[in-house]
Amino acid sequence: MTSIDSVTLEVADPAAAERFYATAFGLTAPLRLRAAQEPTAGFRGFTLSLTVSQPADVRALVDAALDAGATALKPVSKSMWGVGGVVQAPDGTIWKIATSAKKDTGPATREINSIVLLLGVADFVASKRFYVEQGFTVAKSFGRMYAEFATETSPVKLALYRRRALAKDAGVAPEGSGSHRIAVGGSTGPFTDPDGFAWETTTIAATS
Questions:
Q1: Does pTM top 0.90 for this prediction?
Q2: Closest CA to 75 of 67, 63, 64
Q3: d(CA 17, CA 10)
């Protein structure tokens, strides 16, 4: 089974980004950081989602991110899917913190249940077919809008979302150009997908 072992964010100041992610989300592995000055403008075409157990946890992580220097894109609010909020880290990465639960069952924690990488794609059918050809198995699919792949043993889940829909969900305009400022490390690759997202073969995957 294919998997994602790491997500590398390309940032202008790795030390500052490391401080932010440790303070805001307590994240280390599987998140990696490396210095890059590739030009980018507007929406980078992806978001990272943190799923948690209850609304109080959403609020705790969003508040911690804002206190650490993030910018609010969407305030924490209820929807038919649950409760969520969206922030943009100082390095430009967009993060959504969400839960399917609508009521709290205990005190707030900062425990993260899962990390999901959502790639915004221009041609959903072509991108979905491409990833299936790379060995990914579709676990969930909703029309020509959204697909989630089976990555049970992976620390990061992978999903595809139509680019405009993903930008709307994130609270930003869909236009963007330049580098995505992200590299995905996994058991497959190296390759570049139809939307320009680069995959790298990780050391773990290469030696297993």
A1: yes
A2: 63
A3: 10
